[in-house]
TrEMBL record, chain A:
Belongs to the binding-protein-dependent transport system permease family. HisMQ subfamily. It is a multi-pass membrane protein. The chain crosses the membrane at residues 32-51, 63-81, 101-118, 152-170, 201-223. It comes from the Bacteria. Its main location: membrane. CDD domains: TM_PBP2 (cd06261). This is ABC transporter permease.
From TrEMBL, chain B:
This is ABC transporter permease subunit. It is found in: Cell inner membrane; Cell membrane. The keyword Coiled coil does not apply. The keyword Cell membrane applies. It comes from Paracoccus aurantius. The chain crosses the membrane at residues 29-50, 62-90, 110-131, 245-266. SUPFAM superfamilies: MetI-like (SSF161098). Its main location: membrane. It is a multi-pass membrane protein. Belongs to the binding-protein-dependent transport system permease family. HisMQ subfamily.
Length: 239, 275
């Protein structure tokens, strides 16, 4: 027990390395999917909050407030069970057979809804930071609202949004661990299973920690590059 | 116009009637009615008999959640101040470890840290000779010390980062003025640097405390029976899916609202001019 048995981390079956890596890959898949879904929801939510009528603005406000005030763990349980339950009821109502929702899709859905609320706020603040003249100019050229968004608003807000969005990506990668509680076999859950089976708790949890930390550090490097690129037209000294 | 409106919102003691009128637009009344309708429907059609049976446990769980929040925020913040300070003025052998600590803790999920402490360290402690006889043993066998420890460590890492920015952001002139008055370094820190940094960090600390509240239910996964743990018991005892979870969400919403109000009270007590 005293010495560390590195063979336990071997990739092929007597070792658990392959299982851990598969779980890690699934964590990244969910984080990516949920993050992208969250971005789409966030852009929609920000547009609704900035340009929608009063009703839409209040609905968006309710969405962001509730999601940001309730623990992710509770939201995940609620959305995971109610989402599958409601979908199956809908299917039964339409006379179809109950569908079996894959854990991956459910996980992406849940993380996406949570991320959407936060990215709504980030994107809304970033759009508000754009000099209003830029959007006015685009409108004066007769661009349609959609074209204004695609050509001016979204590219111009990106430098302001990237720090917040980068933070959200890091949160998304860590939030995938919460899906372990609903029994989805991502990295944290398979780590616990491996640790429980071999009784080498410290080794496996540290190994998983290294994987998560590696993901964070690599993400930070990429984010730095993206940020540099997005800010390339902007003067450095901004008090 | 907007200035007047914001003044009116801030000055709540001024004219509550007029303020309510501005806020209560027709569509909001409809939305509130729909919300109340959903609540009423949940109360009417849902099963709530278990509330009476579990009431004592729910109060106990609420107490555990609040105690976890308060203790981890307090302990975490006590560590966050030196961690932040070390990164600003410390020599490399202090700032390096502080920075590494923040990066590692912020780069891994809290759930993993919690399980690492509870299952990992918890499985090592019994092997240390003589620990079973020590006064620590009764605590090391319980789950909650591991919960408090990992929550506090996480809070210390996130707030260490916040305090680093806050300490670095205090204008140098104010510190120089303190030195010119002949203040000792300790007095300078206690009277000027820390209060000014705290003041700057307060809005962020508010958000972070809400995040910390939302992290507390994770301890239920290591058998600490907090509010979430009680609701899990209710769910397995009554086999209800929605009702306990909805009540739980509602309670956390209320707790968040109370936290935000408390912090707003403190923020408003400090005049903010030119910050």
């Amino acid at each position: 027990m005293g010495s560390i048995d590195w063979g336990l981390l071997a990739l092929s079956p007597p070792g658990w390395g392959g299982v851990l890596l598969a779980g890690f890959l699934r964590s990244i898949e969910i984080a990516l999917g949920g993050y992208c879904l969250g971005l789409v929801l966030g852009i929609g939510g920000a547009m609704g909050k900035l340009y929608g009528n009063e009703l839409i603005r209040d609905l968006m406000e309710t969405y962001t407030t509730v999601v940001r005030a309730v623990p992710e763990l509770v939201l995940i349980l609620l959305l995971y069970y109610s989402g599958t339950d409601l979908l199956n009821r809908l299917m039964a109502w339409m006379g179809r057979e109950a569908v079996d929702i894959s854990g991956l899709a459910a996980g992406i859905f849940v993380i996406g809804i949570v991320q959407g609320a936060y990215s709504t706020e980030v994107i809304r603040a970033a759009i508000k930071a754009i000099a209003p003249g830029q959007i006015e100019a685009a409108r004066a050229f007769g661009m349609s609202p959609f074209k204004v968004m695609r050509r001016v608003t979204l590219p111009a807000m990106l430098p302001h949004a990237i720090p917040g969005l980068a933070n959200l990506w890091l949160i998304a990668t860590k939030d995938t661990a919460l899906l372990a509680v609903v029994g989805f076999s991502e990295l944290t859950l398979v780590t616990r299973q491996a640790a429980g089976a071999t009784k080498h708790y410290l080794l496996f949890f540290l190994a998983a920690g290294v994987l998560y930390l590696g993901l964070t550090l690599v993400s930070n490097l990429l984010i730095g590059r993206i940020e540099k690129r997005a800010r390339r037209g902007i003067a450095e000294a901004r008090a | 116009m907007t200035q007047a409106a914001s003044n009116m919102v801030q000055d709540s003691a001024g004219a509550p009637d007029a303020q309510l009128h501005v806020w209560l637009k027709p569509h909001r009344i409809v939305l509130i009615a729909i919300g109340l309708g959903i609540l009423a429907a949940a109360g009417w059609f849902g099963e709530w008999d278990w509330l009476a049976q579990y009431r004592a446990q729910l109060w106990q769980g609420l107490w555990v959640t609040l105690a976890l929040l308060a203790s981890s925020v307090l302990i975490g913040f006590l560590f966050a101040v030196p961690i932040g300070l070390a990164q600003v003025v410390g020599p490399w052998w202090l700032s390096g470890p502080a920075q590494a600590f923040c990066t590692v803790i912020r780069g891994t999920p809290l759930l993993l840290q919690l399980w690492l402490l509870y299952y990992g360290l918890g499985s090592l402690f019994p092997m240390i000779p003589g620990i079973r006889g020590s006064f620590l043993w009764p605590y090391l066998r319980e789950a909650w010390p591991y919960g408090v420890a990992s929550l506090a460590i996480s809070f210390a890492a996130y707030e260490g980062e916040v305090m680093r920015g806050a300490f670095a952001g205090v204008p140098a002139g104010e510190l120089q003025a303190g030195r010119a008055f002949g203040m000792s370094p300790l007095k300078l820190f206690w009277r000027i640097w820390l209060p000014r940094a705290l003041h700057r960090a307060l809005p962020v600390l508010n958000g972070e405390t809400v995040l910390q509240l939302k992290s507390t239910p994770l301890v239920a996964t290591i058998t600490v029976v907090d509010l979430y743990g009680v609701i899990s018991r209710v769910r397995s005892g009554t086999l209800l899916t929605y009702e306990p979870l909805l009540l739980l969400a509602l309670i956390y919403l209320l707790l968040t609202a109370i936290l935000v109000l408390i912090f707003r009270f403190f923020e408003n007590r400090i005049p903010t001019r030119g910050v």
